[in-house]
Amino acid sequence: MRAVVQLVKKASVTIEKKTAGAIGPGLLVLLGVARSDTVKDVEYMVDKILNLRIFPDREGKMNLSVRDINGEILVVSQFTLFGDCRKGRRPSYSHAAPPETADALYQAFVEAMGKYLRVATGTFQAMMEVELINDGPVTLLVDSTKEF
């Protein structure tokens, strides 16, 4: 499981000119699911992302988590995070999970996050427009296999 995690002042996702989800201060999480992912990957990612100390404290140091600030999370599915561009000019998505598997693990991730904070989402497999105001900017890559 892979995520691009962005600290945002606000973010939203629009589908067919209608806002599907929007948040105030918190995290935008673009989430990709691999063929080999399981519930263990969901658990790892939820724990890691909820507890990343990337928000500034009173002294301006990155010392607080999204939970500490009672922030919100916008989760958007993004299978292209598993696009392999090493060979040729067209990315290969052979490592991305098939839609049924990916959707189930995506929904498990959203549900687990929702136990701790307010979570908004896009729609799985929909064409979406994502808007955000990145704060910092702070953008991190998180991978459950710890490849990076």
Q: What would you say this structure looks like, in words?
A:
- This protein has 148 residues and is of the alpha/beta class.
- Helices cover 20% and strands 38% of the residues.
- The strands form two sheets. Strands 1, 2, 3, 6, 7 and 8 form a six-stranded mixed β-sheet that branches. The protein has a two-stranded antiparallel ribbon with strand order 4-5.
- Helix 1 crosses helix 2.
- It is globular, with a radius of gyration of 15 Å.
- The N and C termini lie close together (12 Å).
Entry keywords:
about 150 residues, alpha/beta, D-tyrosyl-trna(Tyr) Deacylase, Chain: A, 6-stranded mixed sheet, two-stranded antiparallel sheet, 2 helices, globular
Return Rg in Å.
15 Å
Tell me the β content.
35-45%
What would CATH call the homologous superfamily?
Answer: D-tyrosyl-tRNA(Tyr) deacylase
Largest sheet: 6 strands, mixed
> Number of DSSP helices?
2
Alpha carbon gap, first and last residue: 12 Å
Here the CATH topology equals: D-tyrosyl-trna(Tyr) Deacylase, Chain: A
CATH structural architecture = 3-Layer(bba) Sandwich
Helix content: 10-25%
In short:
The protein is an alpha/beta fold and 148 residues long. It contains two helices and eight strands; from the N terminus they run E-E-E-H-E-E-E-H-E-E.
Helices and strands, with pairings:
Layout (H helix, E strand, L loop, with lengths): L1 E14 L2 E6 L2 E7 L6 H13 L3 E2 L5 E3 L7 E6 L21 H16 L4 E3 L7 E15 L5
Parallel strand pairs: 3-6, 6-7
Antiparallel strand pairs: 1-2, 1-3, 1-8, 4-5
